[in-house]
Amino acid sequence: MTSRERVLTAFAHHEPDRVPAWCGASPEFRKMACRHLGLPDDESLSLHLGDDFRRVFAKFAGPDRRAPAASLTHPEATSRTPFGIERRGYGYGQPLGHPLAGARTGADIEKYAWPDPDWMDVSLVHADALEWKGLYAVLGGDWSPFYHDAIDLLGMDRLLLLLYDAPDLIDSVLKHIVDYYWEVSRRIFAAAGGSIDIFFIGNDFGTQNGPVVSEALFRRFFRPHLKRLVDLGHDFGLKVMLHCCGGFAPLIPALIEIGLDALQSLQPDARGMEPSRLKRDFGDRIVLNGCVDTHHLLIKGTPDLVRRRTREILEIMKPGGGYIASPSHDYLLPETPLENVLAMYETIREYGQYG
Length: 355
Description:
Blueprint: H1 3-11, H2 27-37, H3 42-49, E1 53-55, E2 59-60, E3 79-80, E4 86-88, E5 94-95, H4 106-110, E6 120-121, H5 125-130, E7 137-140, H6 146-154, H7 156-165, H8 167-192, E8 198-202, E9 206-207, E10 210-211, H9 215-235, E11 239-244, H10 252-257, E12 262-265, H11 275-282, E13 287-292, H12 297-300, H13 303-317, E14 323-327, H14 338-351
Parallel strand pairs: 1-7, 7-8, 8-11, 11-12, 12-13, 13-14
Antiparallel strand pairs: 2-6, 3-4, 4-5, 9-10
Helix pairs in contact: 6-7, 6-8, 8-9, 13-14
């Protein structure tokens, strides 16, 4: 099987030739791994690890004042979101301000300087996807972290209070955010001309001890916007996969109800996220991607322990298909020992075979 065939077979909840493998890693980790392995580029690393996925992106082509990393105004800022929030710190960082924290009316929301989908250039997406020659499962679409953007705009405390005190304001903020992501992704899929397989989005609705909000609040405020994105992907014939960290198991039935095809991350040390439970309760209804612990195992373990635990995960998750093997996060950090990561992918190749 090609990687693409392998992944799509797993998405159909059938058993391919082997469990598909996924590698999400930070640029710093990938650079470190290439250096240690003597590999020339990212693609060589993906081939070395046996990654069955590739990804394409639209390019920012808007004004510098809203660019991801140009013309930053705060001296500590390292990046900027599409919604004008400057952030600092490692990776995605933390917001340096909450410009809608003082919003009191719908007019306050309306007059905010919302981003323009015209700022994203989708013209190269099709050509970029064709570079993979149909051999890999291609991910595309905007990451669409609308829940995190709402926190950036309002502040976490205020967002949670407004869920009760001013639900219409929350509805308005979320609609503006998702309107932008929906339209950018629609343009990406239209430009891709069928060369993308999976719409990959990300919102972290879990903590180590459970969902950030109750199931009732999740269904009221956030599920409708996820459904808009899921429906968009399906309208273009795509599978839709959500990255979500933490212990969000109580929300999984609501995600299945809106037709979500796959969940990525699956942290086995978070409450309610035991691999055996996920497989038993949901494995025949949604693709499960992850479960190899990055929080403790890959950081602190030995290669032998990684091999043993990865094999245990495979034995639980692989029967019947519907499983993709990967670390329990989409962003391997550079402090993760390379020998542990290699041990994981070697074990996936050796013990992930079907038949």
